[in-house]
């Protein structure tokens, strides 16, 4: 690529979590392919509560993510929305837990509303360090690594960029 006169070279930041971030992004894309293949072809819908449902596609996507984590990081613990906690060797994993929602927006998905995602995060020593959200319907990938040292209330923009949210005072946990 030719140099632009007067442009400054931008340093590439690296994080100690880059390998985990690349892994999570790849797995999210594979799980997103499962979601896209099953879209408008849901075979089974089960009600978890009055307003919450789970589909066969949730389980297929979750199994893919769990299998990939087990293969790449066998000692890490996993907290999965549909199947719950999967223990790991916490001493070997140094307090690492993968948190996954294989189909965030299941009600939308089950009703053919194209707003849903795959969410994968890694928590180490109680702090979030990797986050990936993929919107497979639009092929939008949002990523962040090393988030524990970021400002407490950033608005996450695509590909790990942060921007301030005017008027935002406090975020609440739902």
Outline the structure in words.
It is globular, with a radius of gyration of 18 Å. Strand 7 and strand 8 form a beta hairpin. It has 174 residues and is of the alpha+beta class. It contains four helices and ten strands, in the order αββαββαβαβββββ. The protein has one domain: Fructose-1,6-Bisphosphatase, subunit A, domain 1 (Fructose-1,6-Bisphosphatase, Chain A, domain 1), CATH 3.30.540. Strands 4-3-5-6-7-8 form a six-stranded mixed beta sheet.
Helix share, percent: 25-40%
Give a quick account of the main beta sheet: strands, pairing sense, barrel closure: 6 strands, mixed
Task: Determine the CATH topology.
Answer: Fructose-1,6-Bisphosphatase, Chain A, domain 1
Biggest sheet, spatial arrangement of strands: 4-3-5-6-7-8
Class by SSE composition: alpha+beta
Radius of gyration: 18 Å
CATH class membership: Alpha Beta
Mean pLDDT: 74
Fourth-level CATH superfamily: Fructose-1,6-Bisphosphatase, subunit A, domain 1
Question: How many strands in all?
Answer: 10
Please give the CATH architecture: 2-Layer Sandwich
List the helices and strands in order: HEEHEEHEHEEEEE
User: What count of helical segments does DSSP give?
Assistant: 4
Low-confidence stretches: 89-93, 148-174
- Give the CA-based shape: globular
């Amino acid at each position: 690529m030719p140099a632009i006169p007067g442009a400054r070279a931008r340093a590439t930041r690296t994080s100690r979590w880059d390998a985990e971030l690349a892994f999570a992004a790849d797995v999210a894309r594979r799980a997103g392919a499962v979601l896209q293949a099953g879209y408008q072809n849901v075979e089974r819908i089960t009600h978890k509560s009055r307003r919450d449902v789970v589909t066969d596609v949730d389980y297929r996507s979750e199994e893919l993510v769990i299998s990939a984590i087990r293969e790449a990081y066998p000692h890490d613990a996993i907290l999965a929305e549909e199947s719950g906690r999967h223990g790991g060797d916490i001493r070997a994993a140094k307090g690492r837990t993968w948190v996954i929602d294989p189909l965030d927006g299941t009600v939308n998905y089950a009703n053919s509303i194209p707003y849903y995602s795959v969410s994968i995060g890694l928590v180490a020593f109680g702090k979030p360090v990797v986050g990936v959200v993929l919107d497979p319907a639009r092929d939008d990938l949002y990523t962040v690594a090393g988030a524990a040292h970021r400002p407490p209330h950033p608005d996450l923009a695509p590909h790990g960029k942060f921007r301030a949210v005017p008027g935002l005072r406090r975020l609440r946990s739902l």
